[in-house]
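#structure-requests
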Amino acid sequence: DTTIHGGRGDIGIHNGQIAISDLSVETPNASLNVAALDLDMRQDPPSYHLEAGGAFDLNAFVEAEGPGGFGPAAVSLVLDGTGPDPDGATGGGSLRMEAGTVPAFPAVAKIEKLLGKSLISGTPYQVTDMDFSLANGIATLEPFRLVLENLQIGGWGTINLDGPVNLVVEVRLPREQVDIKALEGLIDGMTDEEGWTIVPFTVGGNIGEPDVSIDMTAAKEAAKGAAKDAAGKAVDKAVDKVEDKVKGLFKKDKDDG
C-alpha cells in the first residue's frame, strides 16, 4: 500500500503536462520525499520523470529478526517510465546504510550455517554505500563491500521487484576462521598473501526464503588462479637467479680483463 501526503507540495499543469514537487510518499518500507515528478499526459500511456529520496527500512525489507539491526538507511533515485507498471521504469540511485549491526535474517542464517559458525549476525559494520540501476522491473546492485569488525562481505547481482533474487556474495575472513569440508584442498589456494580467504556464495530464491550455496565453480577458479600465480612467481624467481648468475659471470670476465 502507498499513502501520499501533500505537505508543501506544488502542482503545475500546462498543456497536458503536470509538474509536482515536494510531495511526501509513504510505502511499507520507505518514507520518501518526491523532489520532482513530471507527468506527460499527452501520450498513452502517460510518461513520467521522478526524482525522490528519503528513509528506507532495510530491516523490514530483508525480514530481519532479533535484537540490533541495520542502521538508518537513506535512498535516492531518479526514474523515467511510462504507465503504472513498474516494469516500464528505468533509472537508478543509491542507498547509504549508516553504521549498525548485521541483523539475523534468512540469507545470513544460511551463509553462517555453511560457514559452520556464527560470524556475521550481531556484528557491527561501518557506513556502507550501494549503487543500483533499475530496468524491466529488475534492480541491479553494483559491487559493494560491507566492512565488519572481523570480516568483510562483498556482493552484487539482481533483485526482481516481484521477489526473485540472483546475488553473488563473497565473505572475506581470516584463514584460521575457515573450516569448510566442501572446500578441503581449495582453501589455501583461496587465501591471499595477507591470510584472508574469500568464500563465494550464490543466493537465489527470494528475500524471505533464499536458496544459498557455496559457489564451488568460483572457489575452484580462485584456487586454480592462485596456483598459476604461485607457479609464475616460482618461474620468475628462477629466471632472476639465472640472470644474476649470468651478470656475475660477465662482471667477473670484465674484471679479469
